Amino acid sequence: MIRAAVAGVVGFILIFIESMIVMKFKGYATIEFGGLKPFINVWAMNFFVVFAILTQVTNWYVNRQSFKEDNSY
Questions:
Q1: Which of 6, 24, 30, 73 is deepest in the core (most CB within 10 A)?
Q2: DSSP string spanning the chain?
Q3: 7, 55 Cβ separation under 8 angstroms
Q4: In whole angstroms, what is the distance from residue 67 CA to residue 18 CA?
Q5: Which burial class, exposed, middle or buried, applies to 63 when counting CB atoms under 10 A from its CB (0-12, 13-18, 19+)?
């Protein structure tokens, strides 16, 4: 549940970071997303990317802790 909340917030923040990068490269002053639906689509894409990354980081952290506890190898 916390992963989903963090992914939602970070996905929203990534929209603005991506917009700033595009504005710098293209020399634009503003960006038009074309309505609410394209904006939601970009946010959903960012959400799932961040959620997948957080899932992998969580799995890595849990496996790392269990490996430290079981060092009989």
A1: 6
A2: -HHHHHHHHHHHHHHHHHHHHHHHHHT-S-----SHHHHHHHHHHHHHHHHHHHHHHHHHHHHHHHHHH----
A3: no
A4: 37
A5: exposed
Dig out the tokens for 30 from the structure: 């503003």
pLDDT band at 23 (very low <50, low <70, confident <90, very high): very high
CB of 64 closer than 8 Å to CB of 28: no
Predicted structure pTM score: 0.80
Contact 7, 51 (CB under 8 A): yes
The total number of residues written for the chain in this structure: 73
Contact 15, 42 (CB under 8 A): yes
Token pair, residue 73, equals: 């190898």
